[in-house]
Amino acid sequence: MPESVAHVATDRADRFLKQLVSHFGQQIPVVQEGPRAEFLFDLGHGACEAKNNKLNLAVTARSAEDLSTLQKIFTHHIERFGQQENLSVSWKTKATA
After folding, report:
1. d(CA 67, CA 51)
2. CB neighbours of 51 closer than 8 A, spacing ≥ 6?
3. Position with higher pLDDT, 55 vs 1
């Protein structure tokens, strides 16, 4: 399954994680444990962790097309929520065996 990761530098990672959980929790199943949350989309799975002044993201999908869609969803929301900080998300695709 295709997978990619991103690390967004921000001193307000906890706040952005909370916003993602609140927003997506109204639409899809979301499980949060402390500074980590899992997002269960029909297209695949997303995970976010607020740690060391970073919002660490990982998405896994059934196909490359679905992976691209999940990346766009997370990117759009994080950049919108972090507009005042000019947050930017840059994804790196993980190699699959």
Report:
1. 24
2. 13, 35
3. 55
* Distance of alpha carbon 21 from alpha carbon 25, whole angstroms: 5
Distance CA 26, CA 93 (A): 28
Supply the range of the domain harboring residue 77.
3-86
* Structure tokens that stand for 43 in this block: 């297209």
Beta strands 3-9; 54-61: pairing state: antiparallel
Q: How far is CA 5 from the centre of its chain?
A: 8
CA angle 49, 4, 17 (to 5 degrees): 20
Cα distance between residue 73 and residue 12, in whole Å: 20
Find out whether 70 and 38 touch, Cβ atoms under 8 Å. no
CATH code, domain carrying 40: 3.30.310.50
Q: What is the pTM of this model?
A: 0.90
